[in-house]
From TrEMBL:
The keyword Signal applies. Residues 27-48 are annotated as: Disordered. The lineage of its organism: Bacteria, Pseudomonadati, Verrucomicrobiota, Opitutia, Puniceicoccales. Keywords: Signal. This is Lipoprotein. Residues 1-23 form the signal peptide.
Amino acid sequence: MYRRIALLAALALMAFFMTGCFDSNPDDQSVPWSRPADWERGAPGFGG
């Protein structure tokens, strides 16, 4: 019984520490190819 609870708690902690989040805006990245060029933003004839 206690072994199962300990195993579940360990798995929950591992899942918590192994997950991450992306906290940066993609438009703020330093590489130039991370965002489309001005001419790639819209299709012709659709107001882009």
